[in-house]
Amino acid sequence: MASLRTFVQSEIRSSIGVKEEILGMDALTEEIACVAELCVSVFQGGNRILLAGNGGSAADAQHIAAEFVSRFMFDRPGLPAISLTTDPSTVTAIGNDYGYENLFSRQLQANGRPGDLFIGISTSGKSPNILRGFKTCHDLGIHSVALTGKGGIQAMELADHCLMVPSSSTARIQESHILIGHVICAIVERLIFGDRERL
User: Fold this and answer.
1) 63 is in an annotated binding site
2) Checking CA distances to 86, which of 31, 53, 110, 133 falls within 20 to 30 Å?
């Protein structure tokens, strides 16, 4: 039992360590704030946020979309956000007919509009369907943000903004993506519905 407790403590310290590294990266924290302001601009312009990822990142996309649509810190009107991973019929139809690599680009082409924002989540920054999604955004005038980890150079090169977690561990990257998503949601709520002095 003692060895398991030591392992638990080690994992927690590892997670905290990555977050402390993020905290010390001025460029990254400024970029997080910049993306939050972009989200506000998108919503205030009558547009919406589209999110996508694979596996655990698909769950993260759904999680962040739900925070916008329902609520995060306090009651307020819903904000238009959609996860592109939640409709099994659409996912399987595109995968079957056009290939899994076109899963998100096809949905962005069908449902995205100029001025919308696509948040593509990929811990490696190399997911073909996310990268194709960024290319489609460029063609359609849709803003794009990559949430990735160390080494996500392809995503950084294709997206308008890149929030790159300084880790190569999938678990640590995903934990940090949710933290970043929560911070963005908190800023968005306060800038649109709350008192700006509280920031």
Assistant:
1) yes
2) 31
